[in-house]
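User: Hi! I'm working on a homework problem where we have to compare a predicted structure to a textbook description. Could you give me the structure for the chain below?
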Amino acid sequence: MEANSHVALDLLRKAHPPETASAIFTEKILHKPLRLRPTSPDPNHKDARAHRRLQRLRKKEKAKRRQKPKPLSAKEKRITGIYEISNESKKYEVYVPLYRMWLGYVWEILGMVKGKPTWVTAQTAGARLASADFHGAKLMVVRSKSVSTVGLRGIIVRDTKFTFKIITEKDELKTIPKTHTIFRFHIPQPDATDEEPDPGKIKGISNDGIGPNALVFELHGSSFEHRAIDRATKKFKQRNMTEL
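Assistant: Happy to help. Predicted structure tokens:
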């Protein structure tokens, strides 16, 4: 295409004098530089594709480190046996210190102090006990549809959603369902002679905590079918119990 018959020149001649139109056409269109992007890779990187791949891998590894570890599935827990109790640990004496620790814990949440007998009601302490952790508590089965479990007593070593696993004084591990079962446990008063409440020195600790002014509670398992971690954040309300 000749310059004199270019469509851009014809449009410029309509807006500018002939000399000005020719100058603009020559400078802006005919002699306009054409800048092309180089197709060859950066000379600083001999293999640009491998470099980009390495950058992607590093970015992926960095994002993976930021993520929280994935919790174990139920199948993985069964395979690893993290909740299994070995035969060497199935001894009542092993968990007596845990029971003493639990007494100090429950004294604290109920506000029980030495030298001052504490009396609680469902309104004052019911919600606290319902949200408490019962690992280490010593309880007894007083009523159940499963007759074989009535009378069993021991220290709770595992509190699941539907069962209590206890170690009896005969060094036996028993699994007791919560459904249609009523449990009883005692909380003794802190000894007034100690400077600090020490569960190891209270009277009646060898007799399930039954002593002077001991607090006695009954736990209805059918209304307690929650995991310990879920009870800590759950708000309990008073409701009528149809099983009574």
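For your comparison, note the following. Helices lie at 7-15, 18-30, 48-66, 74-80, 92-110, 122-130, 228-231. The first strand starts at residue 138 and ends at 144. Good luck with the assignment!
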